[in-house]
Structures are given as C-alpha cells and as structure tokens.
Amino acid sequence: MPEARADNVLMQKVRDGDLAKMAVLFERHHRALFRYFLRLTDNREFSEDLVQDVYFRMLKYRHTYRDGHPFTSWMYHVARNAHLDGAQKRKGETPLFAESMEEPASAEPDPSQILSRRQYLGLLRRALAALPVEKREVLVLSRFQDLKYEQIADILACDVGTVKVRVYRAIKALSQIFFELAGEKAS
Known about the structure:
This protein is an all-alpha fold. 73% of the residues lie in helices and 0% in strands.
C-alpha cells in the first residue's frame, strides 16, 4: 500500500476513534511540517509550537476528515490555519530570515564559489522574507514541500488554475525583489 493511501487509512482510523494511530502519522509528517513552518516563520521555537498545535488540532477536528480526501492536503489545511492563528497572536513580530534556513552543503571546493553561493542564498532569503506571507506560503508549499498544485488548491480552497497564477505571481515578485536587492548590493 503506497504511503499516501496508508496515511488516508490511518487518518480514517483516528477519525473513527483509534487515536493511537496519530503517533504513526506524527512520525511520518512532523519533520515536513516543521520545515514548512520554519520556512514561513524563520523561528524554530514558534515552528515547533505550531507543529504541536497542528497535531492537537487534527485530534480535535478529526471528525472533519473526509474519506477519499488526501491526508496531506487536509494536514496542510489545518497547518495553514494554525499558522494564520499563530501569526495573528504574534502580530508585530517580523521574521529575520537571515541565516537560519539550512544551506545545502556545497560540493564546490573553490572558496570563491562557496562565498558567491552564500551571498546568492542570503539574497534569496532576504527576498523570500520580503514577500507577503500569501506569496511566500504558496512558494513554500509548491517548491519546498513539493506539493502538487491540486493539493495546494485543496489546502487554499481555490482552483488549480488560481494556484498556478499565484505561484507564477509569487515567483515573479520574488525575482523582482531579488534583483532589486542584488542591485542594492552591487552599488
């Protein structure tokens, strides 16, 4: 049984009262949720709290899970609501997005290439942080969490075409901010 289908079956069992099955879902998905929140908030503690909140909410609202509905879409829908609620409570705090995102290890031995890559990633982080949360969220879901547009549409409660437009606009806005920052840096 593929993992996605198994997750659906496990969530159906949780919904029907077998709460111990939530531990299996937690083991399978808590790291991905943490990365999702970390990329949205750039705050490890807050991200850990949000992951816990998501699992509490999934238990509390388990009756809303529908048969045949992809578990991950439902989970990210719950996660999105938890993030929005958490962000509302923390209104006024701004994410730093400076250096905390994991940087992929470089196979390049040349120090100048390593430095150039770090500068590029730093600019990219700053550009991502400058995006409005709605645009940042759609990019995190599509590019970092590797969700399909259909799943994102389900999470955001919109059409697939709308998701495609939002991703396009978010990438366009990200590139514009990135090149503005790069221009600042060059001058």
